[in-house]
Amino acid sequence: MLDTDIRNTDAPADEMTLRQSRDSTDHRAIFLESPDESSDYTEFRTAEDIRSLAREMSRHSTFLPHEPASLFHPESGSDLDPNSPSFSPRKWVKTLLRVEDLDPNVGPRRKVGVAFKNLNVHGYAEGADYQKTVANVALSILQAGRRVLGQAGERVSILRDFEGVVEAGEMVVVLGPPGSGCTTLLKTIAGETEGITVDEQAKAMHHQYRGEAIYTAENDIHFPMLTVGETLSFAARARAPSKLPGGISSSVYTQNIRDATMAMYGILHTVNTRVGNDFIRGVSGGERKRVSIAEATLGRSPLQCWDNSTRGLDSANAIEFCKTLKQSTELAESTAMVAIYQAPQKAYDVRSLYHFSRGAKLTLIQLFDKVTVLYEGRQIYFGRVDEAKQYFQDLGFECPDRQTTPDFLTSMTSPAERIIRPGYENLAPRTADEFARRWKASQARMELLEDIENFNQRYPIGGEDSAKFSESFRAQQSRGQRSHSPYVLSYSQQVRLCLWRGYRRLLGDPSLSLTQLVSNISLALCLGSVFYNMKADTNSFYGRGGVIFFALLLNAFGSALEILTLYEQRPIVEKHARYAYYHPSAEAISSMLMDLPYKVVNSILFNLIIYFLPNLRREPGSFFFFLFVSFVSTLAMSSIFRLIASLSRTLPQAMVPTAVLIYGLVMYTGFSIPISYMRGWSRWINYVNPIAYSFEALMVNEFHGRNFSCAAFVPSGPGYSGLAPDQQVCSAIGSVPMSQTVNGDAYTVSSFQYQNGHKWRNVGIMFGFLVGLTILYLVAAELVSEKKGKGEVLLFLRSKVPTRSNGRDVEGAGAAEKPLPAAVRPSDASPSIEKHQDVFHWEDVCYNIKIKNEERRILDHVDGWVKPGTLTALMGASGAGKTTLLDVLATRVTMGVVTGDMLVNGQPRDASFQRKTGYVQQQDIHLASSTIREALEFSALLRQGEHVPHAEKLAYVDEVLKLLDMEEYADAIIGVPGEGLNIEQRKRLTIGIELAARPQLLLFLDEPTSGLDSQTSWAICDLMQKLTNNGQAILCTIHQPSAMLFQRFDRLLLLAKGGRTVYFGEVGKGASTLIEYLERNGASPCPPGENPAEWMLHVIGAAPGAHTTVDWPNVWRSSTEYLHVKQELQNLKDLAAVSIPTQVDDSQHSEYAVSFWAQYWQVQKRVAQQYWRSPVYIYSKLSLVVLSGLFVGFSFYMAENTIQGLQNQMYSVLMSMLLFIQLSEQIAPVFVMHRSIFESRERPSKMYGWKGKSHFDANELSF
């Protein structure tokens, strides 16, 4: 039992309780396995049907294999073999659970239920926020002072009076538009309450039961260079129980459960493919989403909260995800709460019955047991899924034909979508508060309260079930693990597992280590050549000290880049810590150990060169001591940099302390400023400087016990050549009269106050620094988390902050309740949108790439066209090549071989093709500091030709803003994902940037509705319809179209695996043309009311678990429709041959729309705006310059007119020059961000060329 009691601070009686359920829940879903499930649907109508089904289930259950060997070493091709086409996920799960139940060494299964009553969650807002700039950032200091004084700001209610109960084994779907509170509810249930206020006892969920209740966010965060198999193997091993059934090894268990999970989600074919991300090519977006789902599934948490996890999945895969979750809840009696913005009807259906015939097994599916509907932070329904629709109909609302039940329920939160039945105009609720009041007064709510009370009586807090739950978890923990720890593996096992992952990451991308190694070797050669082959005389004293000093610095500060790598992996580590996979400190230890081989190799190669080229002491003991101390210094400084990165919550916070630290360590090493010249106020810096102890040890290592011949005597020169030795004295420090040599020990004592007796003492001190700093780093890694975003709160320029409105976005504090989107207002017209007559067509397009010396065909002879005024859908299974086809057609692929004809009006594409087409990427990549209006204007000014007047370009931007319904927040700052614009607003902006360019040919859109709720998806489709009505040609990939959305497309290009065409042609009214073609060629009939898009993917075998005996690509190439397509393509080519050529300005065919100087000015202006709106970056530079100047000035204050004083003055100049290195390190992250945007979006769109990026240097110089 999860013994957690969460009470609101204002109402002591309010509570949310999570408990383990011992009893089986009332499952309303009955499943039987089918090796060949049919797509025919019927419905149970009599009790005899149920009894017959139960007997059939009993008959089949007697044949279930229960031996571990049959599960973990299945017969090839059997239904338990994940690599077999006949693999049965349900049978595999049932067998696994039965094997575990029958094994006495495996602990009892954990089951969790959740109940909450009068749950209230709130936060604090500062009012209308504004974008900080270099000029107004001082005002934020006053606001910080108010917070210190206890003025937390205005209290904002996020969730109000929530109630519900979820028994073990049940699934709840959470419906509501973005900003209604879905995310907050799921996070609260899972115990992730940072940034919001619930009750202090909620912390027990985060600490003691972390991993047992998990929250899965919609973002896909993974190590991009790991393969899918490696990513999921790690997750499977991290939560694998210590006692495995049948005594099998952990490696066999991990591989088998990983492969089975991948097969369940249809990604087994990607096992050796990189995961990738927005900038690194890997699996497709839909496949990456399924990797995220599989990773969380492998944790086997009894309580799972899924936040929009179907984002980026097609309807078939979304349904398969829900089915797989249902298998887990129904068989393992786990509990799942799922927020879905676009829920397919089949994922919600109460009863769907697959036909039973010839050994196929019958399946009665109710995927979700309960549903809750959220409206502006208020709960307006919680109950059975089969009662929800009728509840709202009784309130006076009407569900239109073909509208899915989830869409109908979600439409209750939108005045623009909900339809009031005749006669209820004055009775139906209209606001969130009215809906909530009607819910509280309903009979369904009374029954819910009774269920909550019964649940509380059955499973009281602190009762018997809590002890059994903890005992069950302890049975799965490794030996030596703390009883109250949320982790399954012991600490040493966690370190070993992270080490394995680190090794796989290194193999996947060794470029960084190799680059650093080559760079360091080059530096060693340069530095060694400067001090090449020094003689063993007093003239080499300064040179020997200099080469030791700089070699030590290069060894020590080579680890500074680890700050960047730590911040890159920090979100992934924190996600895994929330899943209770491993301690963050375990990953910290493994990363240090994983870096050791590189550090050893780098230290040996670097120090070999730097030691022997300058002719330092040629003795084995001295060399190995030099190597040893340099290596220990590298490790100690690495711990310092890692500590700074762990203590800082943002990257800019880490860069300034690092720069100042490097300054202090360099100057107070003892070489730039000898100890005797250090000021009293700064002497302590030398004591806490680990490099100072290394430098002293290396200096005495070089000079101890050696006598150097004197190279210069006093007096000397003309007239003094005949003097006897006793009449001259050596001019070097440490010399004695009447001696031709200088003792090295005397030199180090006189110059630096270094003694040989400190040599090994300093080594011990260095080890003390290393151990102490490492411990601090591990503690910081465990306790300090990354800075969390403020939420999707709109930020405006201070001069553009709107008056505070009654915010309806309870989670993001966004705009007020939206009226009917502009895109769907029938009265809106857009006469300024370009109308064109050009036709883009392609024939026999193939795309081949080489993977591991193997040629792989991604696209295989794809034909098609896009004509003005038509909306063409590009669909297919995930990984079928949809995005790749868009990239090929848009000339955006940078590798591989493309063949085939891609023509515009029968003519080859020219250099201007890329800027004349719009490409809306699936990833919303933007410059965070720009406003929406500025981003659109930037696109318009650079991509519309110079023949278009400047004022007309800006006026067109206003038209686009109006078209996209973005006028209300046109001056809002874009921000980063999770802070600034929300998902919907970002998607509109991405579309707007391409529209602002006035694409003359066509508009490519890659998943424009991904991650959006049904209302916004409908608005986006309305927008596309409006564009096509105005003559725009659109080719659009789409994953989750409802039946109503699918009917809005004119044509369909359907791809199968391998990029082969299944169909290209008209969709037809009600998809009749498509359905007729598929049924005519062997598909089972489409049931009445079925979504044609889902049915289509199922019959061609593109849906997970679906199989077909029809070779649809070959059927297509043999069809009359294919011949008609070929004939039309030939006609388009023939029209080009007879068309009359027109005189066109050469500038119309240029690669870029405007001149270099126009590009330079616009890019310069944008970067200057970004710098002005990045006060942290600018003031960190200013602080670095000022503090460094003061530090250097006071350290070398009033240098004396002596030889040492002169050296101090020179070193003060050198230290000032080193400042530019620190400034360059601050520039690097900003430059990388600009380059990423340029490479991923702006360069392929031909906004500006690489020469225009010289703006960066100019802005850096100005600031």
TrEMBL record:
Gene Ontology molecular function:
ABC-type transporter activity; ATP binding; ATP hydrolysis activity
Coarsely, its chief localization is membrane
GO terms for CC? membrane
Q: Where is this region: Disordered?
A: 1-25, 66-85, 804-832
Keywords for the protein's UniProt record, in alphabetical order: ATP-binding, Membrane, Nucleotide-binding, Transmembrane, Transmembrane helix, Transport
What are the residue boundaries of the ABC transporter domain, all occurrences included? 139-401, 840-1083
Cellular location(s):
Membrane
- Ranges that cross the membrane: 514-534, 546-567, 623-644, 656-677, 760-780, 1176-1199, 1211-1233
Classification via CDD domains: ABCG_PDR_domain1 (cd03233), ABCG_PDR_domain2 (cd03232)
Q: Which organism is it from?
A: Lasiodiplodia theobromae
Task: Tell me the protein's name.
Answer: ABC transporter-like protein
Q: Does the keyword Transmembrane apply?
A: yes
Q: Which family does it belong to?
A: Belongs to the ABC transporter superfamily. ABCG family. PDR (TC 3.A.1.205) subfamily.
Question: How does the entry describe its membrane topology?
Answer: Multi-pass membrane protein
Residue ranges, compositional bias (Basic and acidic residues): 16-25
A Pfam cross-reference name: ABC_trans_N
